[in-house]
Automatic annotation (TrEMBL):
Entry-linked PANTHER family: 1,4-DIHYDROXY-2-NAPHTHOATE OCTAPRENYLTRANSFERASE, UBIA PRENYLTRANSFERASE DOMAIN-CONTAINING PROTEIN 1
UniProt source species: Lentzea alba
Keyword field contains Nucleotide-binding: no
Gene assigned in the entry: menA
Stretches that traverse the bilayer: 38-58, 89-107, 113-130, 137-161, 167-188, 217-234, 269-289
Family: Belongs to the MenA family. Type 1 subfamily.
GO CC annotation terms, alphabetical: plasma membrane
Protein name, per record: 1,4-dihydroxy-2-naphthoate octaprenyltransferase
Pathway involvement of the protein, from the record: Quinol/quinone metabolism; menaquinone biosynthesis; menaquinol from 1,4-dihydroxy-2-naphthoate: step 1/2
GO biological process, one term: menaquinone biosynthetic process
Cellular location(s): Cell membrane; Membrane
MF annotations from Gene Ontology: 1,4-dihydroxy-2-naphthoate polyprenyltransferase activity
InterPro entries: MenA, UbiA_prenyltransferase, UbiA_sf, UBIAD1
Xref: Gene3D superfamilies: UbiA prenyltransferase
Chief localization: membrane
Length: 290
């Protein structure tokens, strides 16, 4: 039987900045046009984090029953390690996705933007079919595109729109920044897993591109938020605060650029996630100060 600590590990805490950072930026973009709503922001955060945990448990379950995680070098997995029964991991995924759905329904009901239920349904389906179902899109090299869309435009612009009823240039730029660095987290994860994924038949984008080009893709993606911050200074000079997140990212960039592999790449996920959260907080502070 898996311990409480192992179940917490199953949520993949290092990836949770992916779901927190976009909501922070989206809320700040709403504040920038005097439309910030604290309750809506909290509900959006519950939706985002619950779906993130749901997709992590779903990924653990689906990869585990397929045997993809049998010989992994990355962090602990509940199903692949045999610590938890697959059905219990699947139930945890359904509960997490259910919590996200309920929070989303509450948010839509309060805001009155009922069409957003469709977006929520797409997000839940995307969470499950990333590695679930007969033809998971995560096994077809489409995971990074999905992460970019769900944790970029969907999360940032969704948070902004539900509070303001409009989309702004600041919101669009922030959504691209969040989508890019969120995708970089997955690229780093898949870079580490190239050897085992290739053997198990998991054809991620990293497997398709190969080691060298995957490293180049990671470095390009993590540069995007800083280019966006620079562009945002035309309207929000305080957006330059985002560059203070660069030192946090530097250890991850060094490991990837130096050709590190295996377990040496595990910290890259953590550094990238923290840098993402730092960028979101710093740029949001700039939006609040403007």
């Amino acid at each position: 039987m898996a311990s409480v600590v192992q179940w917490i590990q199953g949520t993949r805490p290092r990836t949770l900045p992916n779901s927190i950072a976009p909501v922070i930026v989206g809320a700040a973009a709403a504040h920038h046009i005097d439309e910030f709503n604290a309750l809506y922001t909290v509900l959006a955060l519950v939706v985002s984090v619950a779906l993130q945990i749901g997709v992590n448990y779903a990924n653990d379950y689906s990869d585990g029953i397929r045997g993809t995680d049998d010989n992994r070098v990355g962090p602990f997995r509940l199903t692949g390690s045999g610590a938890a029964e697959p059905t219990k991991v699947r139930l945890a995924a359904f509960i997490s996705l259910g919590v996200g759905a309920l929070a989303g329904i509450a948010l839509v009901a309060l805001s009155g933007y009922w069409w957003l239920l469709g977006l929520g349904a797409v997000c839940i389906a995307g969470a499950w079919f990333y590695t679930g179902g007969k033809r998971p899109y995560g096994y077809a090299g489409l995971g990074e595109i999905a992460v970019f869309l769900f944790f970029g435009p969907a999360a940032v612009l969704g948070t902004l729109y539900v509070q303001s009823g409009e989309i702004t240039g600041i919101g669009i730029g922030s959504s691209i920044a969040m989508g890019a660095i969120s995708a970089a987290v997955l690229v780093a994860n898949n870079l580490r897993d190239i050897p085992t994924d290739a053997v198990s038949g998991k054809r991620t984008l990293a497997v398709v591109l190969g080691d060298k080009d995957t490293r180049r893709l990671y470095l390009a993606l993590v540069a995007v938020p800083f280019l966006i911050a620079l562009g945002m200074t035309v309207r929000v000079p305080y957006a330059l605060l985002g560059f203070l997140a660069a030192p946090v990212l530097l250890p991850a960039v060094r490991r990837v650029a130096a050709g590190r592999g295996g377990r040496d790449l595990i910290p890259v996920l953590q550094f990238t996630g923290i840098a993402m959260l730092a960028w979101a907080v710093l740029v949001s502070a700039g939006l609040f100060l403007d």
